[in-house]
Design a protein that fits this description.
With 811 residues, the protein is α+β, with helices and mostly antiparallel strands. Strand 25, helix 25 and strand 26 form a beta-alpha-beta unit.
């Protein structure tokens, strides 16, 4: 009987692979839990798993089949215990929205934007109403500028390591939750943040007070000093932001337009401290240390040069990762490199699948929640594909190395195409060409110059010039008509099949076998989500915070009603929610209706219009509104009607005279009714009591079943709807009793932000709906809400469909 052995005679043990696979599988299984169990349950499971592993150690071969399940249960229980412990330090609901006096230290380099500052605060003490209270140890705080007459009042320049005494209002971590969207609450969980809030610094609030500079967080203070030095040295704001991202990991200064170019060309991974940067730094550092080590015979006799180079390279790369902010991708790379380095230093040469699985298990054991991050899968799948497809022969000479580099880029691009479609909904067609230039340009030229600039600042000018040249190249590629390919997000089975197909295509197999990978790619590339049947329609009320954004779908057409708010100069609901959601659903929008000009309804419109070039714009915005430059808008007027796939759309408000009378924006809200004759929905914008009264009394009556069949002879108001988008987010100035009697909704949807400053939806308004027996769906409690005319009594809430224990639950 023979056994696989590594180069040094160490046996490659199959049981170890089972144990490593169990670590990954058990951790992944625990992340699927909607609710955490009691800690005692996890402890009991862990005890059973340890007993099974002890039995395996005693009985050896006869019980080795138990290794994988026992290790999986042990990993499951350990991750559960960690989660229970962390969740136990969350913010008490009784403290939300209260003024709390905080004393603590600025724990990380603050991020400045157009609205103010965002920073991490390490708590030392807290008091509410003069009594000490318990809070999470780490807080994410904002310090915003004034509003109106106080707009010139801006927060001071905070420094990492400073101790401050200030008053803040806190809330539980709560983000928008949408299909195929970014899980902000998971991100906060992984960052160790269990409360967010803002500094109270108004004229009537106790003034924040800087107590002094501490010795804490010296690395963060150094990072901030370097970032400030780059800003002072480099006049080109775009280049300065990119240099700060590459040196200290600060991506805040990169403009949204630049990110769009980077994503279109597939080089976004290069513009942050990614695994590639850390790996290249480790490689260069190892070469330099090895060269210097070999200059000393005494050092070579004490420790082999290759071992010293490997250890020092990893150590210096760790220092670089720490200085650049110790982000999750950098951490993941360090653990992976350290694992491989320890194997090599111990003299072991395991088969590549076992090395790959060991690195994966180590990363998952340290940070199990990284399994839910796109970067984890992109990194490990890319490394695994390169291992599996590596050439058996050694290429010699510069030409061979260039060919090897190009082949590796092509292999990774092809193999990761299905995964990129699943995770991001688009693939860069020009990505291979862009990366062929950008990877060596950034890693071998720009990043070394940027790092050396810390010691000799004029090098930052050279690095900025190099970035400007690369930027011109990337913008030219991004402007190509077919620079990107967008597809609907496929289901998991299709993505898995596509990933397998991509891997088969790049493996060193006979051509006939590799061709079998092509049909496996087809489900990913051709997938189309199911649409409503003819004569039916559905609404998707996106979770966008304080604002309106509803997607209406029929069998072959799509309408978007409002586009959500603008969060800041560089962030809006269009880019963050609607564009990814429309892309994942494979939508081609026919019409964008903007009810009125308010920024919580039009904030994301520019992004949607840029993505949906064919979409017509219908709105009540004025002729000189900035959006008119992007797409000429047709004025919405009562009486406009059209039909798509057996579903009728009708605008009920405003009247032509409302424009002439100079009504305020809310009073001009476009009110849209959608009906198939059996079910109907009313999207009411921000109309208020006066407009509601006019609609309730002036909208014509219609025969029952006038659109869907034979008339019964009775009539009802055309305002009646089964589903109502609550006017003005539930403001006290709307949802009058007469209006609700006219509409007679069964379901009402309130799109409003969690703990928003307006208090929407107002409690008296909610009571009014409940007294009439109307089921109210609030986006803060539901997340994205999906209603279908084929199942009119059911509303699918994203917070229920995709419930996970780290997601915030609102009672």
């Amino acid at each position: 009987m023979t056994h696989d052995r590594d180069d040094t005679g160490h046996r490659a043990r199959p049981w170890l692979a089972r144990a490593l696979l169990g670590v990954v599988a058990g951790s992944a299984g625990q992340l699927q839990q909607a609710l955490l169990w009691d800690g005692a349950v996890y402890a009991a499971l862990g005890g059973v798993a340890l007993a099974c592993l002890f039995l395996v150690a005693v009985r050896r071969r006869r019980s080795r089949w138990m290794i994988l399940p026992a290790t999986a249960v042990l990993a499951f229980s350990l991750v559960g215990l960690r989660a229970v412990h962390f969740a136990g330090h969350g913010l008490s609901p009784t403290l939300e929205g209260r003024d709390i006096a905080l004393t603590g230290v600025v724990a990380a380099m603050p991020q400045r934007n157009d609205g103010g500052l965002r920073f991490r605060f390490e708590l030392e003490s807290a008091a509410a109403g003069g009594r000490a209270v318990e809070l999470p140890p780490q807080l994410a705080l904002g310090w915003y500028g004034g509003v109106g007459e106080e707009a010139l009042r801006q927060p001071p320049e905070l420094r990492a390591g400073e101790r401050w005494q200030l008053t803040a209002r806190l809330k539980a971590p709560h983000g928008n939750l949408n299909p195929h969207g970014f899980d902000y609450e998971l991100w906060l969980w992984e960052q160790g943040l269990q409360a967010t809030g803002y500094v109270r610094a108004g004229p009537k609030d106790p003034p924040p007070r800087r107590i002094g500079l501490t010795w804490k967080h010296p690395v963060e203070a150094a990072r901030q000093s370097v970032r400030d030095a780059i800003d002072a040295r480099v006049s080109d704001r775009k280049a300065a932001g990119l240099l700060a991202a590459l040196v200290v990991g600060d991506q805040n200064a990169i403009d949204r337009a630049d990110w769009d170019v980077f994503r279109a060309t597939g080089v976004a991974h290069l513009m942050s401290i990614s695994g590639l940067h850390v790996t290249m730094f480790a490689w260069v550092a190892a070469l330099a240390i090895g060269w210097l080590w070999r200059r000393s015979s005494r050092l070579c006799l004490s420790w082999p040069a290759q071992h010293a180079a490997l250890a020092c390279g990893i150590a210096l790369a760790t220092g670089y990762a720490v200085f650049s902010g110790w982000g999750v991708p950098a951490q993941r790379t360090i653990w992976m490199l350290a694992t491989v380095a320890l194997l090599r230093l111990s003299g072991r040469r395991w088969p590549w699948p076992q090395v790959w699985l060991l690195a994966c298990a180590v990363v998952v054991a340290i940070d199990p929640w990284s399994l839910l991050q796109p970067g984890f899968w992109l990194s490990f799948v890319a490394v695994g594909v390169l291992f599996a497809s590596a050439a058996s022969e050694q290429r010699r000479g510069a030409g061979g190395r260039v060919l090897a580099f190009l082949r590796e880029q092509g292999v990774v691009t092809l193999a990761l195409l299905p995964l990129s479609v699943l995770l991001f909904g688009q693939v860069s067609i020009v990505g291979l060409l862009a990366n062929a230039v950008a990877i060596p340009w950034i890693t071998l030229l720009v990043t070394p110059l940027a790092m050396a600039g810390v010691l000799f600042a004029p090098l930052w000018d050279v690095a900025a010039w190099a970035l400007q040249a690369l930027g011109a190249w990337l913008e030219w590629l991004a402007a190509w008509p077919w620079a990107t390919l967008s597809t609907a997000a496929p289901p998991l089975w299709a993505a898995a099949a596509g990933l397998a197909g991509g891997i088969v295509l790049v493996l060193r197999l006979p051509l006939a076998l590799r061709a079998l990978g092509l049909p496996l790619l087809l489900p990913v590339l051709l997938w189309q989500p199911q649409r409503p049947p003819a004569g039916e329609f559905e609404l998707l009320a996106a979770d966008i915070g304080q604002g309106n954004a509803v997607i209406v779908r029929t069998a072959a057409h799509t309408l978007v009603y409002d586009a959500g708010p603008r969060y800041s100069r560089e962030s809006d609901a269009g880019h963050r929610v609607l564009v990814p959601l429309l892309r994942a659903l494979g939508e081609k929008v026919d019409t964008l209706v903007l009810s009125h000009r308010d920024i919580d309804h039009t904030g994301g419109a520019a992004a949607v219009l840029a993505m949906q070039q064919q979409a017509a714009l219908v709105s009540s915005i004025e002729d000189d509104h900035e959006l008119q430059l992007l797409r000429s808008a047709s004025r919405c007027l009562a009486g406009q009607r059209w039909q798509w796939d057996g579903v009728e759309f009708e605008l009920l408000h405003p009247q032509p005279g409302d424009y002439l009378a100079g009504a305020k924006p809310n009073a001009l809200s476009c009110v849209l009714r959608v009906s198939n004759g059996r079910q109907s929905a009313l999207l009411a914008g921000d109309i208020e009591a006066a407009q509601e009264a006019r609609l309730a009394t002036s909208v014509r009556a219609e025969p029952v079943e006038a659109w869907g069949g034979v008339s019964t002879g009775s009539t009802r108001t055309a305002l009646r709807a089964d589903v109502l988008l609550i006017p003005h987010h539930g403001s006290k100035t709307s949802s009058t009793a007469a209006f609700l009697q006219a509409v007679q909704p069964r379901i009402a949807i309130a799109q409003a932000g969690y703990r928003n400053r307006f208090g929407h939806p107002a409690p008296p308004v909610l009571d009014r709906y409940r007294q009439l027996g109307v089921r109210v769906i609030q986006s803060a409690q539901c997340g994205a809400a999906w209603w279908r005319s084929v199942r009119p009594e059911v509303v699918d809430c994203q917070r229920s469909i995709a419930a996970r224990y780290w997601n915030h639950r609102v009672d």
